[in-house]
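tool=predict chain=A
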Amino acid sequence: MDTSPETSGRSPPNAPGPYMGLADEVVTILVGPEATPFRIHKGLLCSKSNYFRAALEGFFKESTETSVHLRDEDPGIFQFYATWIYSQKLVVGSTQGQLSVDVCCRLYVLADKLGSDDVQNLAIDLIHERCTRSYDDDINSSIVNFVYDNTLPDSRLRAILIDIASYEVFFDYAQDLVGVNPDFIFEVVKVLSRRVPHRLKDEKAPLDMNRCKTYHVHTNGRSCPPTPSESSASEHESEAEEKETLE
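tool=predict ok
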């Protein structure tokens, strides 16, 4: 997996418009065993991450310093996070929405550690898009094992991978089940066992339901506005329920 930054991106870009008024102080985030440096405006960074807010403004040792070292993280993945801090987009070069499922999963895990709900939810949306549309991308044992090694059992990232394997059949079972985490196999088998033939016709896959309620994380109590397709589906459901009530 090549996640190397396409440009150095080590210094913060000029921040006009929405970034004006934030603290001008710049902190250095050292990433990986080689301490790759990323220089980011402290106020902006702390406004997007619970972890950095605690590290730089709380009672951590680093709170009296101007740098934080994330020794176990991948600089290539952190580059996407640093870009998002300023642009609110997950991009490869100048193109949004082209990140692989593998990179999105790694970004989700990083954002989970850093307490950045918005990045977690954006990564989930990109995974959903790539695995439910006609992209040449899928999940495999390497992705599943990484996710299961780095998330808790109630992780929304685990949930969407289970549903993709169960409903979209993007998982190459014959080739990729060898060596895959057994907990993942167990969860997929549970879902498939519920999908007996007489229920398939009217069954609504979780992937087609409200994405925010099903897969997103909102520790601050917020919720996302429904997408146009979700709004339409909700209207149809309401009409159907009303019709049943009248009958």
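The radius of gyration is 20 Å. Residues 77 and 111 are 10 Å apart (CA to CA).
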